[in-house]
């Protein structure tokens, strides 16, 4: 299984988690782990997901999530776990 990291960052508003999770469920993407926090009205969520069950390709999912983020006023990024780990090594 190839794991994928999804990050969601932006001003906190009602429904962010619901809209992101609904999109993932509608596209057969399984959430393996999720962490979210709100600091000074700023929302931050990190998810580890398994997108192998989706019929859509990685790039299509990433683009649609980015567009969803624009619609709800947050930034959503999707990266493979391997790339995320390489980018965030100390």
Would you give an account of this structure?
Helices cover 37% and strands 39% of the residues. The model has no long low-confidence stretch (mean pLDDT 92). The protein has helices at residues 16-26, 58-72, 81-87; strands at residues 3-11, 30-39, 42-50, 74-80. The protein is globular. With 90 residues, the chain is an alpha+beta fold. The protein has a 4-stranded antiparallel beta sheet. Strand 2 (30-39) and strand 3 form a beta hairpin.
How many helices? The count is 3
Say how many strands there are. Answer: 4
> How would you sum up the major sheet?
4 strands, antiparallel
Oligomer kind: single chain
**Helix and strand succession?**
EHEEHEH
Indicate the proportion of strand residues.
35-45%
Instruction: Report, as a whole number of angstroms, the end-to-end distance.
Output: 25 Å
Proportion of residues in helical segments = 25-40%
Instruction: Label the structural class.
Output: alpha+beta
C-alpha Rg (nearest Å):
13 Å
**Average pLDDT across residues?**
92
Q: Enumerate the strands of the largest sheet in spatial order, edge to edge or round the barrel.
A: 2-3-1-4
Low-confidence stretches: none
> What gross morphology would you assign?
globular
